[in-house]
Amino acid sequence: MEFGPLTLAGTRWEIDRADFDEELPNLLKLIEDCDFIALDFEFSGVGSDPRRGQVDMNHKPTLAERYKELCESAEAYRIMQMGICPVKWEPNAPREPKYSSRPFNFFVAPHVEKRLFRYDRAYLFSASAIDFHLKNGFDFNKLFSRGCLYLGHQEEAHIKGLKRQRDEADKKEIEPKEEDLPMLEDVRSQIIGWIKRRESDPFDFLNIQRDAGYNGYQRRIISQFIRREFPDYNGIWYERHLQVVPYNGDRERNIVLKREDDFQKVLKVQRGVRHLIDKIMELKKPLIGHNLFTDLVYMHNMFIGDPPEDINDFRRFLQQSFGLIVDTKFLALHCKETNKNSASSSLPELGYRLSHMTYPHIDDFPVNTEQNHVAGYDAWCTARSFVKLSAILYFAGSDNPLPPAEIASCLDSRKEEIVAALATRPPKAGYGKIVEVELEDKRKVRIPHWSSHFWKVFGGRICVNGTVEGEFTL
């Protein structure tokens, strides 16, 4: 089954704020239909301490120490750009079987709708990040002028709490100040006069206004004054004036419902790109990244909320909230075609080393130029590397990875699972030797099935270079 004709297909791969709401249904449908999703982020900074370059080079941090540092970093800095690449296997594609890919790029702006109680955010950059992104052509003007919105779950809960506080406060009466009494008396006299002449007045409402206008506090005390003194009437506020009308229960209920509906619509718009993360989590689609430990921590902070303090709680969150997570860095370091050293497993280098490999075939990037360090392009590169690397490792064989070095009771059963899966995989022999796979037609070569023992060995294992353990295992 193909993705089908979509306005998002072809060369249009960057979605900005003006188009996001219109294209969201198509984006969600792509996520729903795909086999897996590759993800990449670009950050406004990494590392919570400005003096990070002065750390003791003789100290190799533990995984827990690196996690704590990244949590502090994710609190200070933000995701500026998000790339996703849904990918689907098309066995009946017109020319030959292939993986159909649809990469998208989103600048992610910090703006928050003013109607959400003027909730605000701090937005920090590190000088080194600015320098890096400028050298790679990052458009900071586009980030702020056209970037898509977002709203984390924790932020949304906070904003809903602010709304509840406001609603409760609106129900409570406050005592007017002495200087406000003449204003209330003026309102009283106008309403009494209007009530007396209502039979002869052609208009069934009264507009009250003054040159100085009314601030929020004055509007509140006038509204409660009318409710108390004139229970058969109601005040409706407009931008510059108050309109007094006879009380109508149905109208008042509709006003309350409309206010709630408007609030929910603003929330939906503000959620922005979080809709995509929520959909991936809901469907538990396999999630592919390159060296993605940092991405996962930042993603939690931006779209969920404060990451758990304990790394094992973070591990459990990922296990419960996502499907299979695969790190192409881990695959590359165990692939004889690419594992000469850690530098050779960088994403651009991987692309070069795997460029000779025709199958499995995956769609080319929709723009005929390299876009290194652009999140949407890097997400597509990650998807391509994943398809090629997993096929090499599965069919051609490799050195088997060692069991995880992490010491945690929650990993005991996972380690046993990996050891058991490794026992069925002859070193360097490749699964093609022990399973029934027809390889005469190389065009039909695919990544291993998600239920394969291959993913027990190579899935859920994330490189964290420079740490004692070197790996974060799910």
UniProtKB/TrEMBL annotation:
Top-level taxonomic group: Eukaryota
Gene Ontology terms describing biological process: nuclear-transcribed mRNA poly(A) tail shortening; priRNA 3'-end processing; siRNA 3'-end processing
GO terms under cellular component: nucleus
MF annotations from Gene Ontology: 3'-5'-RNA exonuclease activity; RNA binding
InterPro entries: CAF1_poly(A)_ribonucleases, RNase_CAF1, RNaseH-like_sf, RNaseH_sf
Pfam families tied to this protein: CAF1 (PF04857)
PANTHER family in UniProt: POLY A -SPECIFIC RIBONUCLEASE/TARGET OF EGR1, MEMBER 1, POLY(A)-SPECIFIC RIBONUCLEASE PNLDC1
Family per record: Belongs to the CAF1 family.
Protein name in UniProt: Uncharacterized protein
